[in-house]
């Protein structure tokens, strides 16, 4: 993984040393070298950006030899756009669609300008459909390189490297931080959940957890029965269909919905007594949630799981998670400096044996938090 390198691929720079020719170039590749413990140095591959040069390699330069002219942003200049088009012409020429990397982890490749073969360690996926790759020389695992797709030539795939980078080395996640908690207890008014929001004083101690309260609140809103009911039931047409399928009136459906909500709240506010009569769901209430699932586009945790149990299932899945998507980096929208995409986020999948759930979650390595987590059922796995 690259550390605090000064430039990034796509930056527009000029040579600032005595060999300067006054021209502008684009960063086309980054080489990271480990000098000593926690000490790294970088070299940058420059490419010409004028149309006649067609992106030809200028050469390799040290960090101190370069000066930034313009950072690559979403609103890139025509020059940078021309260069980025050149970088990915092979993907366009071969008819590859967006979000399909040309190489995979474990591929042994040759990189333009380097004699030694390298193995692909990680895929970096950008939201504009572009890909870069972290590679490691076969004979020197202390070096990490990053290259654009057009600089790499496939040699062969080595399943041993694939296993080493995806299974043997581990999933790359840090140790779980914080204890399991019930987000309902952090609301300003627990009984009127969720309308009064979170109590800022109560949540301070949880802000550095793997799942901070705001993200747990988001997970529950998107993937718990309590919040998904409203997103479906407020549609008059869907409400009518659900009532017909359950063979009850629309008015009775309203009472059924309120009963389910009351029981969910009661179970979350006192999750040590789940078997009492006023907290157990009826067959009709389970059928009601099943009908909600038919209309909803979200993956919903089982109705009888409390917030605390959902947290426990996510933590268990976290402990045995594996990467199922390449690292994804998207531009910062400017609303939050902390969201600047330096390391990006990765989609993981893990299994909770206690609740028999496959759970997928996005881990944000810039914020060091789980952004969202949801169960994946067999009939919905394709959409993820």
Radius of gyration: 26 Å
Task: Please tally the helical runs, counting DSSP H or I stretches of 4 or more residues.
Answer: 10
Estimated helix fraction:
25-40%
Low-confidence region ranges = 74-97, 378-384
The SSE string, one letter per element, is EEEEEHHEEEEEHHHHHHHHEEEEE
Largest sheet: 11 strands, mixed
C-alpha termini separation: 26 Å
Q: What's the average pLDDT?
A: 79
Based on the structure, what is the oligomeric state of the protein chains? single chain
Q: Please provide the count of β strands.
A: 15
| Spatial shape | elongated
Strand pairing plus helix content: what structural class? alpha+beta
Instruction: Assess the beta-strand content as a share of residues.
Output: 25-35%
Q: Describe it for me?
A:
- This protein is of the alpha+beta class.
- The chain is 28% helix and 26% strand.
- It has helices at residues 78-87, 89-93, 159-168, 200-203, 213-223, 225-233, 236-246, 250-269, 283-295, 307-319; strands at 12-15, 24-36, 39-48, 57-62, 66-70, 107-111, 118-126, 131-137, 144-148, 152-157, 322-323, 327-329, 345-352, 357-364, 369-375.
- Helix 5 (213-223) packs across helix 6 and helix 7 packs across helix 9 (283-295).
- The longest helix has 20 residues, at 250-269.
- Residues 74-97 and 378-384 have low confidence and may be disordered.
